[in-house]
Amino acid sequence: MDEQIDTFGKSLTLMQDNALLIKQLQAKDERALSLLYDYYSGALYSVILKMIRDEGIAQDLLQETFITIWGKSHQYSADKGRFYTWAYRIAKNKVLNFIRKRDILIQKEDLSVYKIEDEPVKFDVEFTKLKGAINQLEEHHQKAIELVYFNGLTHREAHEEMKVPLGTYKSYIQQALKKLKANYGSAVTLLFMMLK
Amino acid sequence: MTKENILKEGLLEQYVLGELNESQKQIIEQLRTSDTQIAAQLNAIELNFEKIGFDNAITPPFSVKTNILEKVSESNKNKTNNYRMWLSIAASFAAFFLLGSIWLYSELNTVKEELKIVGDKNDTLLKDLEGLTENYNETSAWYAALSNPDTEQYILKGNALSPEAKIVSFVNHENKSVIINTEKLPQLDKDHDYQMWADVDGEMINMGVIAKEKKLMAMNYIDNAKSLNITIEPVGGNDHPTVERLISNVYLD
To answer: Which residues pair with B194 in a beta bridge?
Structure first.
């Protein structure tokens, strides 16, 4: 618990700094981009990697994600949500677009572009293992979150994947988030109070 | 889409995950600013997702960061280069216009000077024309007077005092005019003038001083003149003729 509060304490200071860093990023400050990369790249890389399951492609897509963050930083507004959420959506769209294009190429049987035989797909199964508070959830809740959050599925696709009705699936997500909130506990509440 | 619906349907989670279409997205974004409960819910969901994300972070290889920063600084440099390029283009245009303006200004001055010269020439020509017109009018008048059939011609020849002198006078008794041609009158010094007199019953009456520079000139016509006489008088003329200096006379018939 102590460690968790520490983490949040650190996050909080970083978060306040981030508002300034984001302003600097929007003013095309390369140093700000470098610091924001240090802060967010791990989380975003994890999302991309779990979705695409290929380290080489994941790194390319992470790079493209940050180039887009740099290029479209003026479109981000704190009123519309957190910077991480904005960056997460960019990363997810990069992966989904990539997969869409690859599927079209596969349909045309032109695999050469993405599957170069000399370079086999490099991917460590360790990467799929979930860490942190999400592990304290029941397995179906965990799975529900994993499918939409890390696998980039829509709710509709995810409920088919889990073979449960859409309504049930939605309640899985909500219950899971409620439990997570309980698990993250007072630190999150404290964070809210300080944000307000 | 009621608030209850939004909460029950899990639209907020879908919103955070970027699954909603544009119109649904706008509704949620609007509610976020107007409804504190929705805003708090969204914040909680975002924080949860962010926390999950950070819990599961995997550090990417350092080369990715290097690549990104290289690309970004390259694009930044290109922008500066572009900026420099536009600046230099703008500078060349400015220089071009400046030189152009200087050239045009000097051209303008030249043209102004030329215009002034042309104006001056025009003035001179106008004056010449005026002179010519005057001359012409005068000559026409002389010609009209001289060619008049009523005009009589008398020649005054110089006596011993001025043997080479010769004056041709044209007298018109009808319109009472006297014109003389002084071309063959010897030059006098600047202190003396020739003066013309008419003899009326033994009395000499002034007809006028003969101008030095004129070849043809009109004199006063005197009624009942018996003769015309020319004397040398002090400059500007005299009230009475100096008879000792009479150089020529002619009787009118």
So the answer is: B210, B232
